[in-house]
């Protein structure tokens, strides 16, 4: 049964699985970004205020920026309690009322990580991710881990939306940029992922799972060197439920976890890309919980990863990520963020997590 779509949020089907529907159109003409098709029911009602009023919110932000000083509390209150779609309406209303671009106004008022997080919230997730990908490839050098983190964790619709946003924002083709900024085996897997042709039918074909497990073994452990084509086809094109069946078949027949085999057969960025694809197929919230934990582990904090994960997952699987974080690290994500951040930046992240 197909689930209905309310705004940007697909409701669950009778099986409890989220299903993809048509993306809601934005007033600005861009499409909203999809939820992960393999995520369970999401708790985003708190952001769907029935009394949402873009006019009132735009005026509230304007008054927060008026005169000497900035009322950051008002800005946090408004932006953290609205959906990405509602924030687009606030931006349009602000421009209509004051003839100014809200992002430019806030850039002049805010600074540091707080500014970065606020600007991230003002984009649609697909636009923010497109900007992050551009940043990863612009100038000398390429931030391969960032390309992997974004491209290897998104579903078909999200990839398509990111490609469209990239074209709209930069008048460039994302696939062409990825091809020219990466090389070898990493380029091949990223280009395959960018095709956005993963099977999203959740039914499992046991015979195919066994065949794929054999193909992966022959392409890796069972031969000299690694035949990446088999890995690319299976990891980038099979549905997550099909992949889970394949990994079980692999372990049953060959007595090894697929991740162990990938670690022994590949290295560097290719290993990272394959492990990310496997990790997301097995447990996407667990992948992001691990990423958040790493961003706060040891001395210093990787604030950019914190912003990226919390902002882009806020309307998809953030409740599941919080649950998984608690389970894996025996402390709440809120507690971890509170102890690793400070000031207005901390207040905004905690409001997103609330």
Automatic annotation (TrEMBL):
<comment type="function">
    <text>Binds to membranes enriched in phosphatidylserine or phosphatidylglycerol in a calcium-dependent manner. Half-maximal membrane binding requires about 60 uM calcium. Does not bind to membranes that lack phospholipids with an acidic headgroup.</text>
</comment>
<dbReference type="GO" id="GO:0005509">
    <property type="term" value="F:calcium ion binding"/>
</dbReference>
<keyword id="KW-0677">Repeat</keyword>
<dbReference type="Pfam" id="PF00191">
    <property type="entry name" value="Annexin"/>
</dbReference>
<dbReference type="GO" id="GO:0005544">
    <property type="term" value="F:calcium-dependent phospholipid binding"/>
</dbReference>
<dbReference type="GO" id="GO:0034704">
    <property type="term" value="C:calcium channel complex"/>
</dbReference>
<comment type="subunit">
    <text>Monomer and homodimer.</text>
</comment>
<dbReference type="GO" id="GO:0005654">
    <property type="term" value="C:nucleoplasm"/>
</dbReference>
<dbReference type="InterPro" id="IPR037104">
    <property type="entry name" value="Annexin_sf"/>
</dbReference>
<keyword id="KW-0106">Calcium</keyword>
<dbReference type="GO" id="GO:0048513">
    <property type="term" value="P:animal organ development"/>
</dbReference>
<keyword id="KW-0519">Myristate</keyword>
<keyword id="KW-1003">Cell membrane</keyword>
<keyword id="KW-0449">Lipoprotein</keyword>
<dbReference type="GO" id="GO:0012506">
    <property type="term" value="C:vesicle membrane"/>
</dbReference>
<dbReference type="GO" id="GO:0009888">
    <property type="term" value="P:tissue development"/>
</dbReference>
<keyword id="KW-0968">Cytoplasmic vesicle</keyword>
<comment type="similarity">
    <text>Belongs to the annexin family.</text>
</comment>
<dbReference type="GO" id="GO:0016324">
    <property type="term" value="C:apical plasma membrane"/>
</dbReference>
<keyword id="KW-0041">Annexin</keyword>
<dbReference type="InterPro" id="IPR018502">
    <property type="entry name" value="Annexin_repeat"/>
</dbReference>
<keyword id="KW-0111">Calcium/phospholipid-binding</keyword>
<dbReference type="GO" id="GO:1901611">
    <property type="term" value="F:phosphatidylglycerol binding"/>
</dbReference>
<dbReference type="GO" id="GO:0001786">
    <property type="term" value="F:phosphatidylserine binding"/>
</dbReference>
<keyword id="KW-0472">Membrane</keyword>
<dbReference type="InterPro" id="IPR001464">
    <property type="entry name" value="Annexin"/>
</dbReference>
<dbReference type="GO" id="GO:0055074">
    <property type="term" value="P:calcium ion homeostasis"/>
</dbReference>
<dbReference type="GO" id="GO:0030154">
    <property type="term" value="P:cell differentiation"/>
</dbReference>
<protein>
    <recommendedName>
        <fullName>Annexin</fullName>
    </recommendedName>
</protein>
<dbReference type="GO" id="GO:0005262">
    <property type="term" value="F:calcium channel activity"/>
</dbReference>
<dbReference type="InterPro" id="IPR009166">
    <property type="entry name" value="ANX13"/>
</dbReference>
<dbReference type="InterPro" id="IPR018252">
    <property type="entry name" value="Annexin_repeat_CS"/>
</dbReference>
<dbReference type="GO" id="GO:0031410">
    <property type="term" value="C:cytoplasmic vesicle"/>
</dbReference>
């Amino acid at each position: 049964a197909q689930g209905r779509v309310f705004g940007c949020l697909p409701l669950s089907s009778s099986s409890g699985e989220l299903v993809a529907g048509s993306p809601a159109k934005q007033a600005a003409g861009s499409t909203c970004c999809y939820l992960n098709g393999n995520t369970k029911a999401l708790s985003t009602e708190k952001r769907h205020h029935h009394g949402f009023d873009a006019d009132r919110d735009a005026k509230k932000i304007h008054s927060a920026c008026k005169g000497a000083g900035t009322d950051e509390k008002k800005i946090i209150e408004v932006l953290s309690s609205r959906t990405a779609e509602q924030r687009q309406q606030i931006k349009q209303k602000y421009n209509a009322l004051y003839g100014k671009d809200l992002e430019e106004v806030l850039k002049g008022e805010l600074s540091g990580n707080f500014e970065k997080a606020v600007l991230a919230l003002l984009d649609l997730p697909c636009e923010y991710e497109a900007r992050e990908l551009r940043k990863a490839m612009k100038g000398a050098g390429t931030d391969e881990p960032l390309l992997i983190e974004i491209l290897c964790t998104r579903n078909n619709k999200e990839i398509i939306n990111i490609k469209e946003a990239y074209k709209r924002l930069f008048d460039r083709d994302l696939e062409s940029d990825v091809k020219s900024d990466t090389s070898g085996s990493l380029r091949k897997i990223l280009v395959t992922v960018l095709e956005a042709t993963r099977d999203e039918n959740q039914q499992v074909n046991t015979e195919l799972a066994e065949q794929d497990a054999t193909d992966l073994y022959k392409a890796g452990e069972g031969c000299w060197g690694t035949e990446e084509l088999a890995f690319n086809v299976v990891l980038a094109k099979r549905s997550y439920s099909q992949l889970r069946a394949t990994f079980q078949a692999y372990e049953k027949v060959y007595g090894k976890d697929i991740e162990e085999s990938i670690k022994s057969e590949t290295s560097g960025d290719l290993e990272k890309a394959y492990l990310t694809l496997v990790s997301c197929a097995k447990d996407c919230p667990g992948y992001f919980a691990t990423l958040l934990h790493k961003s706060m582990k040891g001395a210093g904090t990787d604030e950019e990863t914190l912003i990226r994960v919390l902002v882009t997952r806020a309307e998809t699987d953030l409740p599941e990520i919080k649950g998984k974080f608690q389970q894996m690290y025996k402390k709440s994500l809120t507690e971890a963020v509170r102890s690793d951040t400070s000031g207005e930046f901390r207040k905004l992240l905690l409001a997103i997590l609330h």
